[in-house]
Design goal:
Helices cover 33% and strands 19% of the residues. By secondary structure, the chain is of the alpha/beta class. It starts with 15 loop residues before the first helix and ends with a helix.
Length: 180
């Protein structure tokens, strides 16, 4: 077949300094609602860096940088993606709403929109709230969001790991942005 993997030097990636200073904003943010595992937080940073997410908002008990576990999984993405911490997720949601974001809880609810049916409105900014590994997104946070988004699942488990979930949802959001 003759196919060859590209070298890192051939990928044309931004340097960390360029990422922080010259990259165009995506209009997308990630909110982590009391994520127990620092490895899941690191994965969220790495995924956010990969997809050019503007910021990661860490809430409650979610680990914050500097952290060896975040760094191990994030491979340094915690140094490129802007982040902030709020003691309470509801405060973070209200702050993002004040910044003009549409708030989307990624949760299975009575009226959640299936990921394949989700359509972002052009010109709007979106913040996706991902929940705790056991309890999901807090109900008061779900209530405060503009809508809920659900990834359809067909097996016996009722949820995906939060880092896998973030990858799927953020890819769909970025896919919609680059399609326009």
């Amino acid at each position: 077949m003759g196919d060859r993997k590209l070298l890192n030097s051939e990928l044309g990636r931004l340097s960390p300094a360029e990422y922080r200073t010259t990259r165009a904003e995506s209009g997308l943010a990630v909110v982590l609602d009391n994520i127990r595992s620092a490895h899941n937080v690191g994965s969220a940073f790495r995924t956010s860096d990969c997809f050019g997410i503007d910021r990661v908002v860490l809430c409650g008990i979610s680990a914050v940088p500097p952290s060896a576990e975040i760094h191990k999984t994030g491979l340094g993405a915690e140094e490129t993606v802007r982040w902030e911490h709020f003691d309470d997720t509801l405060e973070a949601v209200e702050a993002l709403r004040g910044d003009g974001f549409v708030l989307v809880s990624v949760e299975q609810t009575l009226s959640s929109v299936k990921l394949q049916d989700f359509r972002m409105q052009e010109g709007k900014r979106y913040a996706f709230v991902f929940g705790n590994e056991v309890d999901g997104v807090r109900q008061d946070v779900v209530d405060a969001c503009d809508l809920s988004l659900e990834i359809p699942q067909f097996g016996t488990k009722h949820s995906l790991n939060v880092s896998v979930c973030a990858g799927a949802v953020l890819w769909e959001a970025v896919r919609q942005k680059i399609k326009k």
